[in-house]
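During the practical work, I selected for study one protein's amino acid sequence and its backbone structure tokens, as given directly below:
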Amino acid sequence: MTENKTENKENETVSVAAEKDAEVKSSGSSIALEARGGIVGVKAGMSQVFDEDGNASGVTVISLRAPNVITQVKNAEKDGYLSVQVGVLDKKDKKASKAEQGRLKGMEQKGFYHYQEFRLADDTKMEQYQKGQVLSIGFVKEGDLVDVSAVSKGKGFQGVMKRYNFGGGPAAHGASVFHRKPGSIGNRADPGRVFKNKKMAGHMGHEKVTIQNLEVLRVNQEEGYILVGGSVPGPRGGIVTLKKAVKA
């Protein structure tokens, strides 16, 4: 009974994300990248799953309903290295610029909202990758460890207590206008400057963050989602990148 409720909750979460995702139609075949692999998904939200003993674990649902369409294959002779560029979340024709349409000439899609490149090893056989193919999640299975990268939530301009967990000044006994101040930031004439990388107030968040060694708890290619244990950076609906764990 509990497992059925969990499955329903997962399906509802993925369905909500699917409405936001721009599903594209592609006639190309499906292929998984070699070595560490790689695929781009959309963070659908969080849920929970139960093990055989009834213990609940928090999971992140990553929607893969928006296909990763190969838009460019780079080779060593022309580009100096080997890589595959993919496009995710297709645009309407009228929203794609002429330059973008020119790059995708010969493809059904006229443009994408997100492009990403996956670097490949120097000994990779690039003949197997063709423009228009769709990347699959076949490079991972349940129980594997993956590294997940995304842009974290932006917090705006924040002080040192929120940004770096400073303790702040005294909260009583005569302290005035010093409760959340950073304190001293340097000396006087020597060295006469503030050292670089000094922890001070400033912009917080909205930067690329990679969480390593998250376990893949479920892969559902039919419904187009994957469950990974723990949390993933970024807001619901944000772009996330999955690769096999480099330290596994």
